[in-house]
Amino acid sequence: MIPTKRAHRLVAVLAVPALLLTAACGNGDSGNGDSGDGDGATASWPVATVTGDMGEEPEVTVEEDAERAEETRVDVLVQGDGPEVSDGDFLRTGLLVRSPDAEQEDLVNTWRPMVADPEGGEEQEDSGPVYAALRVNVDDLLPPAATEPLIGVNEGSRVVVQGSAVELIGDIATQLGFEEGDSVVFVYDVVTVIDAQGRVEGEQAPVEEGMPEVEAEGTEPAEITIPEGEDPPQELRSQVLIEGDGPEVEAGTQLIAQYTGAAWSDGEVFDSSWSRDAAAKFGIGVGQVIQGWDEVLVGSNVGDRVLLVIPPDKGYGASEGHDLQEETLVFVVDILDAV
């Protein structure tokens, strides 16, 4: 569980802009510690001992006289056999972060998620585990130094990273109450590796009458051709061009997706994740994106390619002064995962 104010501060601080998440010190050296190729392996040095099966909440114990880490230590407790994690990949992962210098409290524990009390009172523990969606070696949910040791690890692995809090968390460690010489322990269950430059796979269906044509392949933005002489539809329209077989997208999840957006009036691309060399990650169904996306993408499936035509009132119509305020928008969205 996350019982303390420090844990709440970690969530709050890690939500600030990426500029504040830059690690103060570079990457640490990896240790050669105990590695396992099955469930129930153990890592111990010199701060924490971690035990437990992949997929179950890890047990982390710290002896009172344990030495504090001076170098970053990386242990693969359970060796997976899936794809390797590459620099910049997205991960679906179980995550536990503990400060052994503060009564062994958990700063983050996705095996014991917290939810708001509907009565408006204190938070209550939820009934089941969740996963974190994070990007490796990039300012994201965690600072780069905390995830860089996962590069080269295989999907399906349980990994323990422990070391200096200042080095792994960065300058914000002091905001969280850490002092020089304090340690921090991360336990990752790497459930899914998502290629940040990937596309969904499958045969694309012909577009419906009156919908833009779409060509999407490689690592370039999709080519969107507006039907000649057609007025834009007045209502929100969408079509699944490639049907995925993954889980249904639920409101409140973090969507990891590639997308290209073009204006109906001239067909010009105004935004694309491909221009940033990585998929985008955002909350869906919670008002973080335009209304048309929330309405269509909730209920889609992971692996879908979705074509959306969005009228101004469900696009940027409410954003006064926006360049696209009066524009009908066309998007092609590849849903890579929903965490």
TrEMBL record:
<feature type="domain" description="PPIase FKBP-type">
    <location>
        <begin position="252"/>
        <end position="339"/>
    </location>
</feature>
<keyword id="KW-0413">Isomerase</keyword>
<dbReference type="InterPro" id="IPR046357">
    <property type="entry name" value="PPIase_dom_sf"/>
</dbReference>
<feature type="region of interest" description="Disordered">
    <location>
        <begin position="31"/>
        <end position="68"/>
    </location>
</feature>
<feature type="signal peptide">
    <location>
        <begin position="1"/>
        <end position="23"/>
    </location>
</feature>
<keyword id="KW-0697">Rotamase</keyword>
<feature type="compositionally biased region" description="Acidic residues">
    <location>
        <begin position="54"/>
        <end position="68"/>
    </location>
</feature>
<comment type="similarity">
    <text>Belongs to the FKBP-type PPIase family.</text>
</comment>
<dbReference type="InterPro" id="IPR001179">
    <property type="entry name" value="PPIase_FKBP_dom"/>
</dbReference>
<protein>
    <recommendedName>
        <fullName>peptidylprolyl isomerase</fullName>
        <ecNumber>5.2.1.8</ecNumber>
    </recommendedName>
</protein>
<dbReference type="Pfam" id="PF00254">
    <property type="entry name" value="FKBP_C"/>
</dbReference>
<keyword id="KW-0732">Signal</keyword>
<dbReference type="GO" id="GO:0003755">
    <property type="term" value="F:peptidyl-prolyl cis-trans isomerase activity"/>
</dbReference>
